[in-house]
Amino acid sequence: MYKHILTILVCLVAANAVEAFDFSALAPTGQRIYFTKLDANQVKVVAPSSNSWGNYDTPAGTLTIPSSVSHDGNTFTVKEIDKMAFQQCYQLTSVTIPGSVSTIGLRAFANDTALTTLTLQEGVQRIDMMAFSGCSSLNNISLPSSITRIAISAFESTAYYLDSDNWNSHYTLTLGQWVIKEGNLYEDTVRIVEGIVGVANSAFLSCGKIPKVVFPSTIKYLGEGTFHECYELDTVQILNPIPPAVSTSTFEGLESVVILVPYGAAATYDTATIWNTMTIVEMPYDSNSHGTTNDSIIPINPWPGHPVIGIEDVADGKISVGTHPQGIVVYGALNKTLILYNMLGQPISTIRQAQDQQHIDLPRSGIYVLVVDNKQSIKISYLR
Question: Which pTM does this prediction carry?
Answer without folding.
Answer: 0.73
